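User: what does the whole thing look like in 3D?
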Amino acid sequence: MQAVLSLNGISKSYGSIKALKNVSYEVPEGSVFGILGPNGSGKTTMLSIILDILKADSGSFAWFGQPGSPETRKRIGSLLETPNFYQYLSAVDNLNITEAISGRGNAADIDRVLEIVNLLERKKSKFSSYSLGMKQRLAIGAALLGDPQVLVFDEPTNGLDPVGIAEIRELIKSLAKRGKTIIMASHLLDEVEKVCTHVAIMKRGTLIVAGNVDEVFANEDIVEVSSQDTDHLHNLLNGFNGATKIKQDDNKVQLFFPQGTARLEDINRYCFENGTTLNLLAMKKKSLESKFLELTND
Amino acid sequence: MLSLIKIEWLKIKKYPAFWWMLGIVALTYPGINAMTYYGYLKATTGKEMTNNIAKLLLGNPFAFPETWHSVAYFSSFFILLPSIVVIMLVTNEYTFKTHRQNIIDGWSRAQFITSKMFDVLIVSVIATLVYALVALSFGLYADSLNANRWAEQLQYIPLFLLQTFAQLSIAFLLGYLVKKAFIALGIFLFYYLIVENIAVGYARFKLNDIGRFLPFEISDRIIPSPAFFSRFGKDAKASYDHALSIVPEHVVYTILLTGLIWFICYAVHKRRDL
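Assistant: Here's the predicted 3D structure for the full assembly of 572 residues, as structure tokens:
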């Protein structure tokens, strides 16, 4: 499968600050590619480079196998950092400019995308009269113009209310279902977990890991148990086979197993046979958040 | 090219400041010339001897063909007005971050600068049209007997266009590099109204008139003061003739400077982070 986007050793500094350090990866066609990272990790810098807003100090990138150019950008619907529109123009007038520059869409299509992002009724209002969430939705609408095969979304749910967030999530899922490639930067793990097929994790300009979501977040099974005497239980469980790690957390004990190998019955039986009755026995799914913190920790 | 102009027109046509500028220019150009004209009428009509002398000295600066020259000269004092719009049109792009969005949507960086050059050209052409209409009206109104001489000195129309485009290009460069509307306007006003005037005046007497190579003065010299200034004695006549003689030379300097300005814009925009 051809990569829609490939980055090759991209580096970028602002003065003495290294914003990106030798970042390389590929975005496969048809994937929903999440770029995760704490604030200031270089997500937007990276997207700015692939959209020719910033110049990389070194390294190269290719869209559809060709070096980035105005022609490749015209095939991509993008929302970068903030909604950028002419304040004194209406939504329709702004989209007319987007359409004229990119060659994506037409008058009917402008109505179509405004409908998708729920702005059809306000299409004649000036951009400056829009709320933050409406501005964000217009920017998403502009990206959708002409139904491009590739979409770049930088923090797409910024400024949206919970309903809006859910709508955008559904929108992204339906776009993905139609075979679109979506590149999405976010610091919201939840967002990425719910929609992404691939993920790249960045920290302070360095790419920590990139790949399939299931592989990157290869989860462990965690079992939580407790009884009257936690210390005693901890000692006892040290003798239980199969757990990779045992940890005491307040008055609970956590056992870690490779994914899919934890069997609650066995633990229960083991404790009971050794004279301890449990008052808690639960399988806990490791949250993406803790995995993320683990990956981005020093 | 045409599509760039069309897109710029989409941006400009609903921009209120643009229409305000147009309105103010449409009032100011006739206004300043009418003031001068009535000053002229006051000095020349009447039965006193001095009135007749004045009439003899001045001729009628607003009759054909002198009107093309006089109106160009007086109107060009007000380059400030279209400059404000030019500065706003470029700094707006930074404020709204649309200078980024235009690129993201598929313009090349060179296309962005070209589109802005068309903005400056559009404003220059409009200012020139207003000037030409005003000059024409004065010519017909002030002395209809001379109307048959309307086609003389028409070179002031392209000269006015060149001067306006050149000076607005300086305004554009400022806005483009400074990025903030009010700072750019402040620098523009301070330099245009104060610094350069003092420098040019000083250089005229002390430094062999080297001030004529300052950015605005270069193109100011392509429209010298009207002919009646030459009628106040031998020295005035000599300096008027000299002013006329260096016009072709200054046309070349103006084109070179304006070319350099746009070259800088293209070169900087090609490289810089947006």
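In plain terms: The interface with chain A takes residues 3, 6-7, 10-11, 14-16, 92, 96-98, 100-109, 111, 271-274 of chain B (CB under 8 Å). Residues 2-271 of chain B form one domain.
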